[in-house]
Amino acid sequence: LPNYGVFDESRYFRPGRRLPLIRLRGTVVAVNICEDVWLPEGPTGFQAAAGAEVIVNINASPFHLGKSRVREQMLATRARENGVVLTYTNAVGGQDELVFDGNSVILDHQGEVIARGKAFEEDLIVADLNMEAVARTKRTGRKKLLPRRVASAVEVCAAPLPSVQKTRVRMVPAVAAVLDPLEEVYRALTLGVRDYVKKNGFTRVVIGLSGGVDSALTAVLAVDALGAENVRGLFMPSPYTSQDSHADVAELGNRLAISVRTIPITTMFDTYRHALAETFEGRAPDTTEENLQARIRGNLLMAFSNKFGHLVLTTGNKSEMSVGYATLYGDMAGGFAVIKDVPKTMVYGLARLRNLRGTTPVIPKRTLDRPPTAELRPNQKDEDSLPPYEILDPILQAYVEEDRSLEEIVEAGYDRASVARVIALVDGSEYKRRQAPIGIKITHRALGKDRRMPITNGYRNS
Questions:
Q1: Do residues 178 and 68 make contact, with C-beta atoms less than 8 angstroms apart?
Q2: Stretch (H or E) spanning 356
Q3: The pLDDT of residue 167
Q4: Distance of CA 278 to CAs 2, 51, 179, 254, Å?
Q5: Which of 4, 89, 92, 380 measures 20 to 30 Å from 309, CA to CA?
Q6: Judging by beta carbons within 10 Å of its beta carbon (0-12, 13-18, 19+), is residue 390 exposed, middle or buried?
Q7: Helix (H) or strand (E) run with residue 322 in it
Q8: Based on C-alpha coordinates, what's the Rg of the chain?
Q9: What is d(CA 79, CA 44) in angstroms, rounded to the nearest whole number?
Q10: pLDDT in tens, 164-177
């Protein structure tokens, strides 16, 4: 039973104690589940040693970038080392932060792919199996002995099937193409949004649009998942919102054919500042005033959600969530965080990928070209507070996803002070992430079930 990362199987299940084999018209078939096939010395090997010629593995294997390739290599190894046909049937669809990618596959006894199902779509794959070749391999191959305790658990039963007329016509199985990595991620995000919204009883979503690439990509994903008629944009300019942002939000809305409502927050922001003026007297403006703007926007988005029943999709990316570059009860307020596990540099890659579809790019060029900014103070840029994303993202990957130490990351060529600062920001922002909405997992280690860290800690990095 897997009990690591996103898996908690030992909490809810207990391992089986039997090793059933099914005889179907002379062919011995064994069924196992999920993790059973991943282990070299696990149930697959025992079932093959007990006489199984076809292994049917039923699975709910969640997606992350690169996993389908690793998984298929593992399956090929397992088929080859046991001399069996291996069929791998995976779930398709989204459940909370997980997306199951399909990519079901049938491999012959030499580990060669016979048939492969579609990714991120339900599919039916059918193939003729060369069982004579499997039988020859079984006769001539090295026999594996079953341990006594395992041999006593073997149960063989015959499944009566109606007779069928044999045919000389052989099935030509479908072998779906392997997707490009960015295309995989885009489809995973689209499927994750569609299923989370629909399976939880929502019809429409509302998104706070800023003119930036994060909210633009979130809106495009929502339209692809749900249709333009079910996506609503809310633009909430402040005194620091540029005319470029005004223009880019309007252009995005037009290109996507979604309804965009503009509600300026300047008057509300002034009311807050006036109410706090006496209390804050003698203190210079700082992130307090910046966060007020984000929280006003969060209130408006949640008001739309309450009044119209729309689900609020938040727009923060993994880079921001990792280092806490987000406002609790502000831009973090919402029901589902679509790109929560997507690093900022990948956000740009996905946006450009989507712009290649169709005749007209959906995301305005200026949105992709101008420096990222929260526009919460005059002339603000993300790089005022953070390292450039081209530097930040690899550091975050090393620390969050690969468990590298400060020294290991520095040895990889990164500035010690920058690495130490990033690590401190990650460790100090756990309290924010605990209060964030869940979001779709697309990397090896997402911020959530994959990375369970205490808020109260005494971490020291040297």
A1: yes
A2: none
A3: 67
A4: 57, 82, 59, 44
A5: 92
A6: exposed
A7: helix 318-323
A8: 27
A9: 9
A10: 776 666 667 888 88
| Rounded Cα–Cα distance for residues 140 and 132 (Å) | 12
Q: For the whole model, what pTM was predicted? A: 0.92
Domains of the chain by start residue, with CATH: 9-158 (3.60.110.10), 181-434 (3.40.50.620)
Question: Tokens standing for 180?
Answer: 């490009």
Edge-first strand order for the sheet with 105-107 is 113-116, 105-107, 85-90, 54-59, 27-33, 19-24, 154-158
DSSP secondary structure letters along 372-419: P---SSTT--GGGTS--HHHHHHHHIIIIIS---HHHHHHTT--HHHH
Structure confidence by residue, pLDDT tens digits, 353-392: 999 998 899 999 999 999 999 889 898 898 888 999 999 9
375: nearest Cα among 267, 297, 283, 274: 297
pLDDT in tens, 69-96: 999 999 999 999 999 999 999 999 999 9
- Which amino acid is present at 169? V
CA distance 176 to 171: 15
Burial class (CB in 10 A: 0-12, 13-18, 19+), 296: buried
What SS3 class is residue 23? strand
Q: Give the mean model confidence (pLDDT) for residues 442-453.
A: 90
Check if the beta carbon of residue 30 is closer than 8 Å to that of residue 55.
Answer: yes
Token pair, residue 20, equals: 């059933």
The DSSP-derived string for 240-293 is T--HHHHHHHHHHHHHHT-EEEE---HHHHHHHHHHHTTTTTT----HHHHHHH
Contact 448, 97 (CB under 8 A): yes
Adjacent-strand bridge partners of 268: none
Other beta carbons less than 10 A from residue 257's beta carbon: 12
- SS3 assignment, position 296: helix
Gap between the Cα atoms of 187 and 103, Å rounded = 13
Centroid of chain to Cα 15: 28
What is the Cβ-side half-sphere exposure of residue 5, based on CA atoms within 13 angstroms? 17
How many residues are given for the chain?
462
Q: Name the residue among 308, 337, 307 with its Cα closest to residue 321.
A: 337
Helix (H) or strand (E) holding 100: strand 98-101
Which pLDDT tens digit goes with each residue over 113-137? 999 999 999 999 999 888 888 888 8
Q: What is the DSSP string of 156-214?
A: EEE---------SPPP---BPPPPPHHHHHHHHHHHHHHHHHHHTT---EEEEE-SSHH
